[in-house]
Design a protein that fits this description.
36% of the residues lie in helices and 15% in strands. It contains 13 helices and 12 strands. The strands form 2 sheets. The chain has a 7-stranded mixed β-sheet, with helices on both faces. Strands 8-9-12-11-10 form a 5-stranded mixed β-sheet.
């Protein structure tokens, strides 16, 4: 079965790029664990396959699947989310260009842009993307790219994609949306005017904490051509096994996100009633400043929650180190629940900058376990305070 525009998300997730093997009829396309391909003569390639850095059927299947789920024409799969971001930026920008990004983007994204690409001549500015006037003021003549995370990591800010797309396009810039937290199941940035979507497929798309990867997805032919060249020329591609595992995980994204979202909503509501808690950051709560916008842009509110504590850094660290079902670990988006202390873990690279994360904050990646067990685990951790 091939991708059809009128098919639902879960149908596309299961069938896009997944045509049964023509030789054996295997319902699951095989894993092509190979680096090179036999030629029938010099320059006579079989279906265009020559060398693994350039093309691989397993990676091609994943790329078709990714594009279909974001409603795009082109998908590119990389070895990590940061490899995808680096390839995209170097494909589209040149020394002297400028990136305007959110002032609470993922620490690794900021490190890449500010410490790796800035010495190459790519300048940057960080701004509150929920303040449209501030975004307009920050987008100058040499701005070529505007970078948005929504919801953001880890402060869960929500950005109006359509409004920022207009600001970017009026200035001659492209809009990139990191859709890792929302996933294509909950949010379709291209439909709101974004030019490019990026993902760390390591997270929700893979979904099982067993395969690293990243993606660049677009319907712009010129952008796709440039990204495709960089993917081939630089070679930070996803390996066949990683691509195969990611495809397998992606097929269940919809049903997983439904459970992630329902569990997170219940936990966010429970956290609101705790006297130890200073603030709960979850777009699904009516009190969240971006709730209405998130409801308009997203199908549901996802599985990520951040929470700050009245007891300060000591309380946050104590809770982070006292859970048993929630595992203290980097990353997010797997079926298992993870606990993270961002200021010293995922966002340590932005300590001391305007992007620094509050020291009394922890981030929860709510898994698909029984929600009563997750709440009980948090409750016993809170009793240590």
């Amino acid at each position: 079965m091939t991708h059809a525009e009128n098919q639902g998300f879960n149908t596309r997730a299961i069938h896009a790029g997944q045509t049964p093997d023509p030789t054996t009829g295997a319902v699951i396309p095989p894993l092509y664990q190979t680096t090179t391909f036999a030629q029938d003569g010099i320059g006579q390639l079989r279906n265009g396959y020559e060398y693994g850095r350039g093309t691989n059927p397993t990676r091609d299947s994943l790329q078709t699947q990714l594009a279909a789920l974001e409603g795009a024409t082109h998908g590119f799969s990389f070895s990590s989310g940061l490899a995808a971001e680096d390839s995209l930026i170097r494909a589209l920008l040149a020394p002297g260009d400028r990136i305007v990004m959110g002032n609470d983007v993922y620490g690794g994204t900021y490190r890449l842009i500010d410490r790796v690409l800035a010495p190459w001549g790519i300048s940057n500015a960080a701004v509150d993307m929920s303040d449209l006037d501030a975004v307009r003021a920050a987008v100058g003549d040499n701005t070529r790219m505007v970078w948005v995370e929504t919801p953001s990591n880890p402060m869960m800010k929500v950005t109006d994609i359509a409004a920022v797309a207009k600001i970017a396009h009026d200035a001659g810039a492209i809009l990139v949306v990191d859709n890792t937290f929302a996933t294509p199941y909950l949010q379709q940035p291209l439909s709101f005017g974004a030019d490019v979507v990026v993902h760390s497929t390591t997270k929700y798309i893979g979904g099982h904490s067993d395969a690293s990867g990243g993606a660049v997805i677009t319907s712009h032919e010129e952008i796709a051509e440039k990204v495709g060249f960089i993917q081939f020329a630089v070679g930070a591609v996803s390996a066949p096994m990683e691509a195969w595992l990611t495809t397998r995980g992606l097929k269940t994204l919809g049903v997983r996100m439904d459970r992630h979202s329902s569990n997170a909503r219940a936990i966010a509501e429970w956290l609101q009633g705790r006297p130890e808690v200073e603030q709960v950051f979850y777009p699904g709560l009516p009190e969240h400043p971006g709730h209405d916008l998130a409801a308009a842009q997203m199908k549901d509110f996802g599985g990520m929650i951040s929470v700050s504590f009245k007891g300060g850094e000591a309380a946050a660290r104590k809770v982070a180190e006292s859970t048993h079902v929630f595992t203290l670990a980097e990353s997010l988006g797997g079926i298992e629940s993870l606990m993270n202390y961002p200021s010293a873990m995922t966002h340590a690279s932005v300590a001391g900058t305007e992007l620094a994360v509050p020291e009394n904050l922890i981030r929860l990646s709510v898994g698909i376990e029984d929600v009563a067990d997750l709440i009980a685990d948090l409750e016993q951790a809170f009793t240590t305070l």
